[in-house]
Amino acid sequence: MANYRVALIVRRSVEGNDFLVVRQTPPTSLPEKEYENYVDSDLWDLPSALLGQLGEGNSCTTVIDGADSASNKVDLQKLDIDSTLDQIFSLVGLKRSVDRSLAFWKCVEEPEFGPGPLIHTLFLVGMLKPDEQIRQEDSKWMSNQCGRGLLLNVKPGNDRIGPLVVTGLLTGKVGSRKWTMPCTLLDQEYPPHVTVIPMRSRTKEPFRTTNLIVIVADDFTASSENSSFSISGDALIMDPGCHTEFHSELMEIVASLPRKLLVFVTHHHYDHVDGLSAIQKINPEATLIAHENTMKRIRKDDWSLDHVRVSGGEEINIGDQRLSVIFAPGHTDGHMGLLHVSTNSLIVGDHCVGQGSALLDIRSGGNMKDYFQTTYKFMEMSPHVLIPMHGRVNLWPKRMLCGYLKHRRDREYSTLKAIESGAETLFDIIAISYADVDVRLWIPASSNVRLHVDYLAHQDKLPKDFSMQKFQRSCLLNFLSRWTWKYLKTGVFIKIPKLSAVKFLTAITLAGLATYFLPGWGLLPKKLGKFCDP
Fold first, then answer.
1. Are strands 345-349 and 195-200 parallel, antiparallel or unpaired?
2. pLDDT tens-digit profile of 199-210?
3. Alpha-carbon span 267 to 332, nearest angstrom
4. At what angle do helices 442-458 and 501-517 cross, to 10 degrees?
5. Strand pairing of 160-161 and 43-45?
């Protein structure tokens, strides 16, 4: 079931095009001193608040002109509009009053980014009364022109504009769409010119979709006029990883795009490349762009057309849209990111996800040292927005990246402490450092623990008497057999009466082996997906 929020467009006059924006509250800062210099710039957006349900016997007193227009999507009579508006008006130092005229503007449904319920937005419009004054410290007036300028001519560290302004007021005013969006899909164009379309894929819980990114030129002539760019095209799509059931929708999108199409792949996991075969079928003129290590792992059946290998630092020109290729190893050894230059938006692949963190793929060159270096690289770039391939766009990039660093540092510390306390095998280290974590997550977590131990060895932090050879010998059969016994002792076996002991043991052993040998995490049980917080 979807949740709803109200976003209020406050204007000073009927004729004017300025609107009120509020400084958004950032997430709580981390206490560690090493992160205090990594602070996101101010984010301004429309004042908004989540809608709650009305209690029994209560009714809404606020009159909204045109509310019937929303009746096919939401029953406003069941929602606590009054309390929500009280919260919103308090943000700007105003009060809700029965004589204030409010009108329904539009309802925007959120695409299925996941995890958690969808959040749809009801946009309302209201006028400032002649005798009212707004709170100046955390709110200000902004014009459409100023908003577009802050969105499209971004400089690192400058004030930022949030997605509600774009969705509620500027959509259609910063460029008209020249391609077709299937009616069965929902998208979000934020920042402008970067369209994010979550499509069902073979990814793992808690996500169900992979974000397809579409960037199309407004001015197609700019591509041919600017020959300084190393790669050019009229449109670009990124990580087409949708399930085969949605290939028809993907092909509809591709068929409507210009023929000079670039297909950028961040890495080779199947929930990022499952749609390649559909693209080359509908547009054999398309060109694939990927790192050399990624190209080696993409099957010929998925892509046999032209391709360009990139290593980072290349420039891509999509008409008037400039993009920079970023080498971002860690998740895999061929992992790439892409910076949309004019909006300073960083598309990060699976380096970041909307919730939790992605496992590093030890079988495909995943590396903890690279992961840390890529994270610091992203932080130094000071992006205004992070766009992951799973989950919502993140509006607080530096805070998110600092959180990733802290989490990995904490895991590194707990791993080292387990070793210093006498743990010598993979199972013993995990049993100590992950004692408070569900046993079912120990298998996917083992990949990151192995990489943490490798990184500790690289930093020369391991005790002198710790044997890497003994540890490495314990990373397969020893770990799987001991984990299986631990798993059985939790009582899970008793809860699965339909499985014989042999079948059950075979299933979980195969799941463990998949962690080490099979590409794309394909045979991991659904609850042991590649996205957790190990």
1. unpaired
2. 999 998 889 999
3. 7
4. 30
5. parallel
